[in-house]
Fold Amino acid ABC transporter ATP-binding protein.
Amino acid sequence: MLSIQGVHKRFGEHPVLRGIDLDVARHEVVALIGASGSGKSTLLKTVNLLEQIDDGRIVLAGDDISDPRVNVDAVRARIGVVFQHYNLFPHMHVLGNVTLAARQVFRTPRAQAERTGLALLERIGLADKAYEYPDRLSGGQQQRVAIARALATDPELLLLDEITSALDPQLVGEVLDLVRELKAGGSTIVMATHEMSFARRVADRVVYLKDGVIIESGTPEQIFERPQRAETREFLRRLRDPFE
């Protein structure tokens, strides 16, 4: 589904991604872990063409989307993205937010888009909030709406960027449960997360980044129970006891 080949990205003189190679199979869930500044979010932004790469290639389902001649809007229409801040439009009710892309980008008739949107809201347990405005929802509810909005156009690939980091701890569980449902439904997902227990439970593969380089990649069991690289062991040790 996704092939990232030798990708480099710099901001000025500062290298952020230094030769990233990563393949993601259809229906696979890949979790990117690493400290702040390791390149996780930047990598996701390059896939969605929010950041232009300096070198390398990104291929989505056989199409080179890093080609400068590519239709950026057409590529983004194939990818669903959810950020840590929900980015819901405050002047639109929940159903309007969920159906916006289908109506405006794909020109889906309003009635059809709203049927799909209401079915999605039913799926995430928020059908009764369809005509509420975002400021009437909890953070966890807003994030679930953002995920529903990303799913409304049936994307080939779903990118999740630290989607629980802006939530109070008691709201994290409901969002993570939804992602587990998406995995069970066969979605292809690449997610940056600081929730190690979530990565362990949901991901098929965990990729540890440090300073823009993939240090280690493997199953959750391999990475969390038997990491091969000293850098990975040190990162996980510091997560367990950040004051050591």
Summary: The chain has a mean pLDDT of 92. Strands lie at 2-11, 14-24, 29-33, 55-60, 63-64, 79-82, 157-161, 189-192, 205-210, 213-218.
